[in-house]
Give the backbone structure.
Amino acid sequence: MPTSQETAHAHYVRNLEEHVLAGALSQAQMDELLSQKALFDAARADIRANHEHKVVGYCNGEMYVGDTVHLLLAQTKAAHPGKLTYFENIGYKFNDDF
């Protein structure tokens, strides 16, 4: 039985694949988001321990932390224009039933 983390990851990948098939996202963009997510996942325990109630993301291999999604994306856009950012809200309870 897959863990909730594995189920969420599989759902995320399927969602990205649907966007590629629809032409809303390129394969290269999908690959970039997945590589940024892999960095996030590798640091997940540290992120949860140190950034509660923040928005944490990875863009171009670098971690960014903001109080809101808008502030986080403003940081990543300024640092890496045109690059996509993988991010999550930390410490908030969401329904993760897929």
